[in-house]
Design a protein that fits this description.
This protein is α+β, with helices and mostly antiparallel strands. The chain is built from ten helices and ten strands. The chain folds into three domains: about 110 residues, Butyryl-Coa Dehydrogenase, subunit A, domain 1, CATH 1.10.540; about 110 residues, Beta Barrel (Butyryl-CoA Dehydrogenase, subunit A, domain 2), CATH 2.40.110.10; about 150 residues, Up-down Bundle (Butyryl-CoA Dehydrogenase, subunit A, domain 3), CATH 1.20.140. It binds coenzyme a persulfide.
Length: about 375
Amino acid sequence: MDFSLTDEQELIRRTAREFTDREIVPTARDRSRDHVFDLELVAKLAAQGYLGAIVPREYGGAGLDYRTYGLVVEEVGRGDSSIRTVVSVQTSLVCSVILKFGTEEQKRRYLPRLCSGELLGCFGLTEPDTGSDAANQKTRATKVDGGWRINGAKMWISLGSHAGLALVFAQTDPSLGHRGTACFLVDTDQEGFRPTPLAHKMGLNAVDTSEIALDDVWAADDAVLGTVGQGFKVAMTALDSGRFSVAAGCVGVCQAVLEESVAYAKARVQFDRPIASFQLVQAMIAEMRMRTDAARLLVWRAGWMKDQGLPNTTETSIAKLYASESAVWCANEAIQVHGGAGYADDHPVERHFRDVRVTTLYEGTSQIQKLIIGRAETGINALVPS
Ligand code: COS
């Protein structure tokens, strides 16, 4: 693997860095304070080509490879994990699987509008009683003339109240287990699709997270993504891309809190010296730097493997596990460097800490990532009773 970036990658990275510093960072505190999901900012992300970045140009995307997509996501994540979540959901959880499993007609109908930001998408897998055990969908899809009726509920759905298109995973035949699951491309503009934004989250205040009631929701036969029975595979494929994107965003958080900590430690004077001159402060900064570098290299490896077309589920889980745990660790440590000042939102480290906490939970908890990695190493599925 070549660690150097091409001139084009350097340019895309620098452009994303400048965009983040100009459009995202200055408003991040207020959007978090006021719980504002800024749709104008989302339109700017789309104009930059960051929604659907990996979608080929013929479908309206930017046609980036995964390594380059990861650079963009890192930069956006350095500014604001709420806004990075929009990029990750739209690009990885929604566009990537329409691209992979969609019919030509489905791709032409949805991808250009998703990439342009005209349409937002959401990913309806998690349910009130179905989290890690994603194969155990309680939402039911019943076959009727010309299509399907879907009943159930979804939980913790990013963009759920703003999406015009929802990928809804539902069980069509419980006797088939995960092989009975289907993924439906659901038009949210119907009475039975009822999202409610979740209030009182710890972080990610500047992006919508909703629960969704599904009451006789309609999906026509041609709204099945992939085949009936292929839904679980669609979900896992989406998560292979989504976990990569979360990991890249977490590298951005590591970088942000490292930079904030260094700047603060050099400016803050105690005992007549900048606190950056104290060995115990330097030890914290050194470990933050080490984790940031290691997380970034794991993300680059996973991206490189995706671009080579190599199997990469394990390496993606390793990147997601390490980058998310490191981002939580680094953000916590950055607050320690800031002392009392880090406990209020005058400094971004407070927001990064609250926002990044969810990354060891969503798109597969750290425990699930360990089971995926452990299974790959041992050949034993710890989730199946022996
Ligand atoms: N890509 C494509 N297919 C995959 C896959 C992947 N990464 N991982 C598994 N599959 C397929 C398997 O090949 C298998 O296919 P067959 O039906 O042909 O046999 C099927 O999916 C079932 O796989 P497996 O037996 O590994 O499923 P498990 O029920 O053991 O579940 C875990 C595996 C735990 C890894 C999965 O349920 C999971 O990721 N859970 C966490 C869910 C999650 O991240 N939720 C957050 C939602 S977004 S906020």
